[in-house]
Fold each of these.
Amino acid sequence: MLGRLNHVAIAVKDAEKAARIYGALGAEVSPAVPLPEHGVITVFVTLPNTKIEFIQPLGETSPIAKFLERNADGGIHHICYDVPDIIAARDRLVKEGARVLGDGVPRIGAHGKPVLFLHPKDFSGALVEIEQA
Ligand SMILES: CC[C@@H](C(=O)O)C(=O)SCCNC(=O)CCNC(=O)[C@H](O)C(C)(C)COP(=O)(O)OP(=O)(O)OC[C@H]1O[C@@H](n2cnc3c(N)ncnc32)[C@H](O)[C@@H]1OP(=O)(O)O
Ligand SMILES: [Co+2]
């Protein structure tokens, strides 16, 4: 039911600036992409085995605003796993007692595929995103 580690997300105040050091190391760095429906701007760094997603707040109601108030210098915000069937994964997780954030309906994420978020208190203090593979 669980696939590859899709990305590790780091919340920062300036995503392009944060990714710059990875570019200096020769990694592929994407352009900044605003995703108003998620309240963030993303910059992806592609590594051989996964990606780093830098997320910067966008708009008044960004879901990462409080996190950055608590972590002014930035910090690891969530981890994202591929799942082969996001609806089956959601239903199994709910059955096991995990809380799906929002209305439980997958939304299209940064890679154009459906994503869901799971409450950090149900995953040992780590916010988890699942993405349809
Ligand atoms: C670009 C699209 C997409 C992709 O395709 O990759 C993205 O990644 S979008 C990324 C941003 N979107 C989201 O994060 C959506 C889901 N997040 C949420 O719904 C909220 O951020 C949250 C997880 C419910 C937290 O809400 P918030 O209002 O910020 O926090 P609270 O202060 O109410 O926190 C409650 C509780 O949870 C702890 N917490 C909060 N954020 C995290 C975190 N990132 N990792 C671990 N723990 C977290 C927080 O410390 C509180 O704990 P207590 O103080 O012990 O109650
Ligand atoms: Co993400």
Note: DSSP finds three helices and nine strands in the chain.
Amino acid sequence: MTAPLNARYELRTSDKFGRYIVAAKDLKAGETIFSDEPFVLGPNSDSSLVCFNCYLPLLSKFVVCKKCAVAPICPGEGCPEQLHKTWHSDMECDFFRSIKLTNGLHPMTMVQNVGSLLALRAFMKKTTDPAAWKEFMEMETHLEERKGTKVWEFSENTVKFIQSLSIMDDIPDSELIQKICAVIDVNSFEVRGPPLPALGCAEVLRGVYLKAALLAHDCVGNTHMSINDNNLLVCHASTNINKGEPIFYNYTDPLKGTSIRQQHLLIGKYFKCSCRRCADATEIGTYMSSVMCPECKTGYVSRSTPGEWTCNNCSKTFEDTNIGFKVQCCMDKFGVINKKDEKELEEYIRNVSLILAPNHYLLLEAKQRLAGVLRDTINREPRPTKKLMRRKMELCKEILPVLEILCPGISRTKAITLYELHAAMVQLAKKLFDGREITGTAYMDELMLAEKYLKRSLEMLFIEPGNSPEGELCAKALEEYRVLKTTMSSVLDAIHAEGKCYVSPVEANGSETQ
Ligand SMILES: C[S@@+](CC[C@H](N)C(=O)[O-])C[C@H]1O[C@@H](n2cnc3c(N)ncnc32)[C@H](O)[C@@H]1O
């Protein structure tokens, strides 16, 4: 079946994916595929209290809406003006007011059921937007698989709450409300809520986007999603996508190993992923779930068949329990160390490097955390050491090749890592030059390379919404690019003033990772 939706993509169905979309023409990396307004947006089922109007966290105080005297909203001067959307609609307000008058609905009932607000608002769309409601109800639910499970039981709270409201004389049957909860669970996206102006903290919300929900999953996606502070979702191609190829979104964390990703997909999305990465014990050559061979000490041992692991060097096989125990120990240890402490992270990396393959997901996470700790120390200390800068560069260079394989093309994590690599390079090169440890030419070489990383990072950051943290990083990176160009120009002038000629090694041999 082919149903054209717009010029860039079209809808297909298959036994494997259900409905999914494919490119209707060749798409270039960075090209916008579609943008999508939320059908419904609201707090997570386990959220703390948020303002029903703007979704700002209500930390300790709240007032109730003057009109309905039920909905908890921002105290003081009310919701900040820059938050354009008002989610507590007139229709909802009238509805709350009428049940307050007839049933004595109390604001505390709403406060206690904030986790059901999203389902309630979705249900109200049945009346306010029947066409979109119909599309929403056609989404995948896996309702039968949910029956009798914990998640079904948990959703019974929402069932009871919505039924207790007797909405517009229409008491929905429990299966309908269970279905709404299921559509939300299977199809929603995480959305960053608005941050509290002074504190910066924000609640994680969930949004259902009817176009974006049609994307099938692959553990190596080919799209990049961003959601701006108006909650508009924009889907870009992250790599070139040929006409007819499926457009995939990675529903899981690409930096987790196969067993964790598959478990997440099975529990939350009810399918067993069989993508190229999941089918490959080496995870496309990254060996992200492999361990060092206890026998030959040089090979990587990966799960070859269920229950058995094999070394890629000496071919020795090991039992699942044996390897599983080692990985579990490393995982348990990671769970208890202080991940903000440089020494503890270094010690962890040193110890588990003897057990896990170099790109194991636990090691990668530890390295990412350590790079973040080093960044904070370097930016905080008045005279950070060269050792710190070198180590941060080393970590970024170890992480990047894995990201290139698992997140090809445009990737937020890759953009941030490239930015951090450039920053450490510039800081170190300046320190070395100021200390007369390197010549102007060597300084220039480093700046040229850092510029190359920064430019690649900027190419990816440009598509981030301006007011998101990544958009703010983009603005910062642009300013740093301007400063870097000025520095490079004065270093070049100084080289020329000495009567020398400068030839960039970056341009001469095209090398990127020295
Ligand atoms: C967000 S929905 C995608 C739209 C859905 N296919 C539909 O027809 O409404 C997620 C569901 O699509 C299916 N799906 C997506 N990617 C898949 C994949 N790689 N393998 C198997 N099923 C997949 C699963 O049923 C999953 O729960």
Note: The chain has a mean pLDDT of 93.
